[in-house]
């Protein structure tokens, strides 16, 4: 099973905390700035194990880590802020 990192590069401020905690060097810095003038983190995904350290440490809450399984993709971590809308599974 492999992990996949999803970063909202337009909201990233390029603090580099996610790079510092990634044990597999699966995150880099984009060579171009975003609309706010920051050089955002960019997912390389090489060797990502879905450890979720990047999502947990992100102060902006803009990183999700997905776990790619043979028949499914699941979100295993997100640090989304409280006011960020998200889908919730409804039980019937």
Walk me through what this model shows.
- With 92 residues, this protein is mainly β.
- It has one domain: Alpha-Beta Plaits, CATH 3.30.70.
- 11% of the residues lie in helices and 28% in strands.
- It has two helices and five strands.
- The protein has a three-stranded antiparallel beta sheet with strand order 1-4-5. The chain has a two-stranded antiparallel sheet with strand order 2-3.
- A hairpin with a 2-residue loop joins strand 4 and strand 5.
- The radius of gyration is 14 Å and the shape is globular.
Please give a quick description of this structure:
This protein is mainly β and 92 residues long.
How is this fold's topology laid out?
Layout: E1 2-7, H1 17-21, E2 27-29, E3 41-43, H2 53-57, E4 63-69, E5 72-78
Antiparallel strand pairs: 1-4, 2-3, 4-5
Output the keywords.
single chain; Alpha-Beta Plaits; about 10% helix; globular; mainly beta; three-stranded antiparallel beta sheet; 2 helices
The name CATH uses for the topology is Alpha-Beta Plaits
Percentage of β-strand residues: 25-35%
Helix content: 10-25%
The neighbouring-strand order within the major sheet is 1-4-5
Backbone CA Rg: 14 Å
SS-based class: mainly beta
Which outline best applies? globular
Counted by DSSP, the helix tally is 2
Number of domains: 1
The CATH class turns out to be: Alpha Beta
Strand element count: 5
pLDDT average, as an integer?
Answer: 85
- State the separation between the terminal residues, measured CA to CA: 31 Å
